[in-house]
Amino acid sequence: MRELECFLVLAEELHFGRTGERLYVSQSRVSQLLRSLESRIGARLVERTSRRVALTPLGSRFLAQLRPAYGLLGEAVDEARAAARCVAGRLRLGFLGSANHRMTAALGLFHARHPRVETDIVEITMADPFGPLRRDEVDAAVVLLPVEEPDLVVGPCFNEQPWMLAVSPHHPFAGRGSLDAEDLADCPLIAAAPPAPGYWRDHQAPPRTPRGRTVARGPAVATLQEGLANAAAGRGGMLLCRPTAEAHARADIAYVPVEGLPRSELALVTVRGTDTALLHAFTRTVADEAQPLTAAPSAKPPASRRETSTYSRITGVE
Fold first, then answer.
1. CATH architecture, range 163-259
2. Distance between CA atoms of 114 and 87, rounded to whole angstroms?
3. Polar residues compositional bias: what residue ranges (predicted)?
4. Residues 6+ apart with CB under 8 A from 120
5. CA distances (Å), 11 to each of 40, 67, 244, in order?
6. Fold classified for 2-85
7. What are the sequence ranges of the domains in the chain?
8. Would 2-85 and 163-259 be classified into the same CATH topology?
9. How many CB atoms are located within 10 Å of the residue 92 CB?
10. CA proximity to 261, closest of 129, 150, 127, 162
């Protein structure tokens, strides 16, 4: 490819020095590439004297056939790369609890980058956080960690959040400025119902305090709204991350901060082996949006002085 490109430029310039300048190589390198090409063909393509450079009759015929074919190679590579970069189709995104501002910001950024993608947003129930992924009802889901499922892949994580306890305004905890994790032993915790895995349910409604005190289990619920309704009715407390609590403020529920528990964390989850260009693009967008707001922007590499040639586009070598 490099020899062919050299011949095409030389056929235009008919000057070894100017050809070298256009290709950013030395004049001797131009001569070397031409000799190599002529050796492959088995005949002279260029006549060179001290006064002029001209194509041989064979060189002229070769140029007439090579120029359109070489151009088609470049077009084929450009079209393939454009198709690879063009993300289009439909993305089905599941979310648990509430679509907080970081998730909606990631969606906004994704649509700005890939306007040809249509997005369906589907709520996932607490009782079945991973089922929609496995049943191919969604392509990706934003769910609470931990995720210890061998058939699922955990992608970028959103920022950690503190826990809030949702209780009835008449509950003794309702007037407290904050709670310690040990206080949970005095309040039954509303938890997700099966088929949600036990370890996942226990993370949101721990059966014991950090010091080992038993925490009573309240009603098992399928959805966030069921849990909030039970909390409002005084049947127990429900642990929610702060963004979800803020998104579900209501007069019949009091939210009290809880200290001493590992923080809540959301992550993007996909099914192992279902990687696509569309999911790749969305994962990159979530990773960009989930980065700390104080992260310094990465420096862009300096632009090359040289216009990309067909050889460069095909081989990736300047």
1. 3-Layer(aba) Sandwich (3.40)
2. 6
3. 309-318
4. 90, 91, 92, 93
5. 18, 10, 68
6. Arc Repressor Mutant, subunit A (1.10.10)
7. 2-85, 89-159+265-290, 163-259
8. no
9. 17
10. 162
How far is the C-alpha of 305 from the C-alpha of 16, rounded, in Å?
A: 21
If phi > 0 it is left, if psi is from -120 to 50 it is alpha, else beta; for residue 236 that is left
pLDDT (tens place) for every residue of the chain, 318 residues total: 899 999 999 999 999 999 999 999 999 999 999 999 999 999 999 998 878 999 999 999 999 999 999 888 888 877 776 666 667 789 999 998 766 677 888 888 888 888 888 999 999 999 999 999 999 999 999 999 999 999 999 999 887 899 999 999 999 999 899 999 999 999 999 999 999 999 999 999 999 999 999 999 999 999 999 999 999 999 999 999 998 999 899 999 999 999 999 999 999 999 999 888 888 889 988 888 765 433 333 333 333 334 456 666 555 555
CATH numeric code, 89-159+265-290 = 3.40.190.10
Residue keyed to tokens 């679509």? 99
- Helices 16-23 and 27-41: crossing angle, nearest 10°? 100
Q: How far apart are CA 21 and CA 40, in angstroms?
A: 25
CA distance 187 to 279: 41
- 273 Rama sector, left if φ>0, alpha if ψ -120 to 50, beta otherwise: left
What is the distance between the alpha carbons of residues 29 and 6, in angstroms, rounded to a whole number? Answer: 10
User: What is d(CA 171, CA 169) in angstroms, rounded to the nearest whole number?
Assistant: 6
Which residue is listed with tokens 């206080």?
Answer: 183
Amino acid at 213: R
